[in-house]
Amino acid sequence: MSKTLRPKVLVVGGGPGGYVAAIRAGQLGLETVLVEAERPGGTCLIKGCIPSKAIIHAAGLFEEMTRASSVAGHLGIRLETVPKLDLAATMRWKDGVVDKLTGGVAGLLRRAHVTVLNGWASFADAKSCAVETADGTVKIEPEHVILATGSVPVELPSMPFGGNILSSTEALSLTDLPRTLAVVGAGYIGLELGIAFAKLGVRVALVEVAERILPLYDEALTRPVADWLHKHDVEMHLQAKALGTSARGLDIETALSDRFTIPAEKILVTVGRKPRTEGWGLEKMAIEMEGRFIKIDERCATSTTNVWAIGDVTGEPMLAHRASAQGEMVAEIIAGKRRRFDPAAIPAICFTEPEIVSVGLDAPGEEHVVGQFPFMANGRALSMDAGDVGTFVRTIAEKNSGRIVGIQGVGKHISELAGEFVTLVEMGATLEDLAGIIHAHPTLGEATHESALKALGHAIHV
Amino acid sequence: MADYDYDVLVIGSGPGGYVAAIRAAQLGLKTACAESRETLGGTCLNVGCIPSKALLNASELFHEAKSGALAKHGVKLGNVELDLPTMLADKDKAVTGLTGGIEYLFKKNKIDWLKAHATFKDAHTVEVAGKSVTAKNIIIATGSSVTPLPGVAVDNDKGIVVDSTGALSFKKVPGHLVVIGGGVIGLELGSVWQRLGAKVTVVEFLDQILPGMDGEVRKEAAKLFAKQGFEIKTSTKVTGVSVKGKKATVTVEPAAGGAVETIEADAVLVAIGRRPNTEGLGLDKIGLELNKRGQIETDHEFATKVPGIWAVGDVIPGPMLAHKSEDEGIAVAENIAGLTGLVNHDVIPSVVYTHPEIAGVGLTEEQAKERGEVKIGKFPMLANSRAKAIAETEGFVKIIADAASDKVLGVWIIAAPAGTMIAQAAQAMEFGATSEDIAYTCHAHPTHNEAVKEAAMAVQGKPIHI
Q1: What is each CA distance from A46 to A20, A52, A54, B385, B450, in whole angstroms?
Q2: What is the pLDDT of residue B2?
Q3: Are A347 and B438 in contact (CB < 8 Å)?
Q4: Architecture in CATH of A165-271
């Protein structure tokens, strides 16, 4: 016999959008059900942001130690033998982090009195949902629905995932390191993983259709990453197309129509992600779409009353923190608060080597003034071996008002500058404001301060 | 009108002085800077912030490698040895790069470097290397030096009883290092040598380490340092240090009085504070008096009581921090040029570069409570996913807000990258942000900064991840 639940809120999908919406709804006293087929945490916690950062961190340590063993006494550390990688231990570490965090989310959901149904949701209409759980079918007829189904990796028709062809998910769970790896798609996911594997000693080749890596970012921001790749013998095939696989590896065609095979034991395909809109009855919900995505307004409302959608299923940027912020907001709207999703900026970070942070407008026009400050002239960067040529912070402001509309940076260890960049844009700071804020010395953030001084025409340290 | 050699003469080339000189030159003023040290940059660049941070960075990596902490990440190492000469040489390289950089900036901005000590003859004239130099405006930016402990003779060359300068260049790792003073400098340099293998004992006169910081932060920090192997003796007074051969004996007693105890040490670091540098300046010649703490008083434009004489940095009241000096340096140059240069002394962040780092800006909980009712939000780094992914889960973010208006009054952070994180807190405070403003700002995932957002949500009573 199936039972029927009639909660105030049904959340579909337990990723950073869905679980945050459910916790916030629960905190606000709304009776809430969350449906998730896997553990709670979604792509981000289980096979995205978190495991990749754990592996990127380990890879960074391995590379640093490898340098210490090859350059006699690098930073004063002398190693008798070349460091060895114990991939199983790295993966155990990564799995431990993921287990702790997903377990933590489950605990948070419990504490917020959210009912979690482990199973696959399928809608008969916008307000009728059935979930196949291990204990049978549960019907749910909620007052509100929050769709947070996320996204999945895009497959290349000529190279479906499986065997030696990996999506980011499989790449994060390898049991052996391949000697050679071809990465198709040099966006941020392909580069973060490609660089991590290169640091671990894998011979990596990148294949990208566009004319440079990270095509969503401008040339100046991506140049230091390209430099790193060159310096570390990562092969780059730009304006090249992946055709398919052969026994030896990956067949590609270059811009000049040359065809050849890149030797590769494994091939990682990271050509993008697409909204997860299939397999759960979206077509029966009579919801208006916008291209591939569910159409939403500034309150994350869909075309159907009391059906809301958040996160990757609603469009770009497909970022966990956008999903979380939307989830939190929708829960508050359902609880009766007046909210809308109108951030001045959503920060984006590439955990590449070096790291890239971008907030707000990144393509200045005639009406803008730009101030750029190099990390070469930043004391903290120099004290951390992070003053590489070509790395910088860049602040973009309106010429007539001085209002800061965008800040970007590229450099080692700068991901945490995202907080400062987004605060400035969100507060509507002008260049003069930023110039007047005392930055602690010696910190990387002093480069942000100097970039404003530069835009005002009087940087001190360049 | 009198004809001067310079529009502006700056005495001292530390972060206050060299920045003031560059800003003055940028504003079209003919500028000189008197500095007797071989290199520009003052304490900060030569024997302070920069070399200590280079050593902190390298020693942290060494400690991670040596302690076997990397094995859990899958990085297996054979025998790990310290190459101290290389580590110290790397540090010197970072220093030379930066001091050379300042010299280049001086040339670029056409600032004359007068390479000698400057002494006042009158309010517009100083004597430098036997020559008289005149200037319409003179900025005193002479900084500070280590406060001596009565009865304790520092000898950096010998390397047994040293101050912070000596502790940047020990020829070998001391077996037992006793640090006198549990402030920022003592704990940072203590951390360096502890990571490189020294046993470190910190002796602090007060009942807690890190004076001036938030009470909860001080307590948590003491716990973390103890866990790292520091021995911390609070409420303890050092009454003497004697050196015999290559060993030192430190005599201590309870601050409140009581039984005397001795501690054997291979090295002793005296780090009880710093005092303003005013000796030998000839301030009597211009009739400029010091306050009770030996500092030069200025108004909010950094003008002293003597017309034409200005002062910035450690030599005036306020926290002795390089970035405070730099911003004062910019402001004073702008004021001299007829612009309006202001410094908001309520929002000056401070950072301790231990591991984890400790940073704060604004009021402590204790100070805030004296002024009125507050609301406090805290979020542990243990619940931050970025911290977890890289095994840096110690510490917390604490936000103190006014109970009625929700305006943020102070932010305190213990976290691996706390020094980087504090910038956004200072910014929010400079804009008079409420905790709700911070809570509703979209923070990038996964970053440590998300903990700042969650702590702000905790002020509102509703963090997500705890």
Answers
A1: 15, 10, 12, 12, 19
A2: 66
A3: no
A4: 3-Layer(bba) Sandwich (3.50)
